[in-house]
Predict the structure of dolichyl-phosphate-mannose--protein mannosyltransferase.
Amino acid sequence: QIFNQHNAEAPNLEQAFHRMAQMEPNLDHDVSWFLLPSYWAKMIVALISFLCFANSYDGDFVFDDSEAIINNKDLRAETPLGDLWYHDFWGSKLSSNTSHKSYRPLTVLTFRINYLFAGGFYPVGFHVINIILHCTISVLMVDVFSILLGGLQFSNKGRRLNLAPKSSLLAALLFAVHPVHTECVAGIVGRADLLCALFFLLSFLGYCKAFRENKEGHTFSVFWVLVSVILGAIAMLCKEQGITVLGLNAVFDALVINKINLLELIRKLLYKDKSLENAGLLRKGLLFRITLLMCGGAGILYIRWSIMGTGPPAFTEVDNPASFADSLFVRAINYNYYYSLNAWLLLCPWWLCFDWSMGCIPLIKSVSDWRIIALAALWFCLIGLICQALCSEDSHKRRILTLGLGFLIIPFLPASNLFFRVGFVIAERVIYLPSIGYCILFTYGFSLLSKQAKKKKILAVAVLGILLINVMRCALRSSQWRSEEQLFRSALSVCPLNAKVHYNVGKNLADKGNQSAAIKYYREAVRLNPKYVHAMNNLGNILKERNELHEAEELLSLAVQIQPDFAAAWMNLGIVQNSLRRFEEAEQSYWTAIKHRKKYPDCYYNLGRLYADLNRHIDALNAWRNATVLKPEHSLAWNNMIILLDNTGNLAQAEAVGREALELIPNDHSLMFSLANVLGKSQKYKESEALFLKAIKANPNAASYHGNLAVLYHRWGNLDLAKKHYEVSLKLDPMAPGTKENYNLLRRKLEQLQKKGG
C-alpha cells in the first residue's frame, strides 16, 4: 500500500496515515495477541530465539562439519584467498568431476575468519556466530512480516509504518522457535543457510525501500532496486537458494505495489484485452523494475556458471533414489511425496533426522501404496489455497495468501528436483527460508480462527502452548546436535531403515574403540544396503584388526567389485592379503589403489612394508620415499626408512634420512628415538643422548626409550645412569625384550667392579 502525501502542513500526519490504513482490512483487528512497541517485540524475539539454541554453543564439530571445516584446506592461512572463488563448499576444485558444485565462497570465508580468530579448530566460536545469525534473522523477520502481513506504507518523514504489529510479532516468534531450524543453527555447516537468509531478507527490505518517496517526488528509486539485486547476489554466494529473492521481489512488486489481480490479469492476457496497459504494469514502472531484476539475475547466474562450469554435480542413487528411477511416473510421484514430507516437517517438526537418504524413505512404486494419501492431502491443501489466492474477492486475502505461497514455494524450488538433480531426499536445512511462507499462512489462519472464535483467549493460549512446545523441542534437538554420538543415535528411532544412520553410529563407536558394538551397526548397514561399500570397507578393517582375515577379505573384495575405483578398499584388501601371505595379490591390490588415487601416501607406505617383508629393500625404500614426498609429515614412512637403513648397516644414510625427517617434523619423538639409535651406533654419544632425553621428555612412559638410552650409557661407560634407566624401563615394562638381560649383565659388571674396588 503506497500513500503519497504532499501537504506538509497537515496536522498529525502519521495519525492520518493510520486512519487511512484502517479503511483497509486489518489482520490485527481479529488477532488476540500481544501489542508491543517495535523495540520490545524485537527484544523478545531475539531473547526467545537465543534461548532455543543457546545450549548448542559448546557443541562439537559433527557430521558434515568434518569435511566442510576440519578437512577443508580453504580455511587455512597457506591457501590463497583467491582460491575460495574457484573451489566448492568442501574445498574441492569446481572443475573436478567429484565436485558437488556447491558454490558458497562467502560462507567459507566466514569459516576462515572464525578459524583465524580462534587460532585453530575450536567449535565454540563457530557455534556462537551461528546463534547470533539466527537471532539477527529472527529480529529482521519482525519487519519483514509487518510488510508481508500489513502492507507497505511510509510516513511523510520516510519512516515505515507497521500496520500489523501483533501479527508480525506472532509470525516472527513462530519463525524464531521452529525446531526444523535446529540443523541450520546447531550444525555449523548450516551457516550457509543462515547467511543466505540474512542477505535474502536484506535484499527484500532493500527492495521495499525503493518505494519510499524522495524529495524529487519519484515513486521509486532505481538505486535501491540495484542494491536489492546486489544483496541477492551476495545471498547466492552464501548458498544457491539466495537467487530466489529476486523472484519474490517481483511477486511482491506485482501484488503489493501494483495491486495486480492475477486472475484478472490472466483473463486479459488470454482475451488480449486492450485495457492491459491500465492494469498498472507500465504506469508504475513494474515492467522496468522486473527487467532490472531479470537482467541482474541472468547476469549473476551467467557469472556463476562461467566460474563453476555447466556440468551437473555427480550424485549416486543412494543420495536421491527417486531421481534415478527409470519411470517418469515413479519419479514424479516420489518427488511429490517428498514435498508432502517437507510440508509435514513444517506442520509437525517432531521427527527430525540429520540424514534422510539410503532407504530412510522407501520409493513409492504403485498407486496402491497408502502413502499416496499424503500427496493427495498436500495438493488438496495447495489447490485450495491457490484458488483462494486467485479467486477471492477480498484483495487483502489474495495478497497475504499469494505472498505466503510465494515465500513457501519459490525458495524451495532449487531443492525440488524440478530443474536439476539434488544430492538428498529431504534436508531440513533447505526449509529455513520456506518456513517464512508457513509462518505467514499459520498467522493468517490464526486470524481467521480468532475472527470466528467466541473465546479468543483460549485460542491465544493454544498458540502460546505451541510456541512453548517448539521452544522445548528446539532445546532438546540442539542438545542432540552437541555431539555425533547423540545426533546419530537420535536418528535410529526416526529412520531405522537408513543404512547411513547405522553406519555413522558404528563409525562413532569404532572411533571410541568399541569395536564389538561397531561391528553390529556396520553389519546392519550392509544388510539394509548390500551395496554400501563404505560400510563394507570399515567393517573389513575392524575384522582385519581382530584377525578375522577371511571374512575381511570377502567384504573388501565385494566392495571393490561393486565400486572398482574405490582406492581405500583396494589398499585395505592388499593389507589383508599381505597378512594372509598372498604377497603377489597384495602387491597387485596396492598398485590398483594407486592407479585410482595417484596421490596416496598411506598406500605407498603399506606397499613399502610388503617389500620390506619380501626383503626387497630398494623397492621398500622407494615406496616409503614416495609416501614422504606426497605427505612430508608421514612419520611412519620416515621411521621405517631409518630403521631399514639402520638394520642393513647403512648408518650414514640412515642418519641423513633421520636428520631430514626431523627438519620436517621437529617434535616427533619416535623420529628422535630412531635417529638417536643410529647416532649411538655411530658412537656419537653426546648427540644421541640429547635426542634420547628429548624423546623421553615428550613421551616419558615409553619403556623402549629408557631401555635404549640405558644401552647407550652402558656402551659409553656411564654405568650408574645406565642402571637407572634400565630400572625405569623394567618398571614400565617388566617383559621388555633384551632389557632384563642387559640389566643383569650390567649388575654383574658393577659387582665385579665393586669386588675389584674392595
Remarks:
- The radius of gyration is 34 Å.
- Residues 1 and 142 are 18 Å apart (CA to CA).
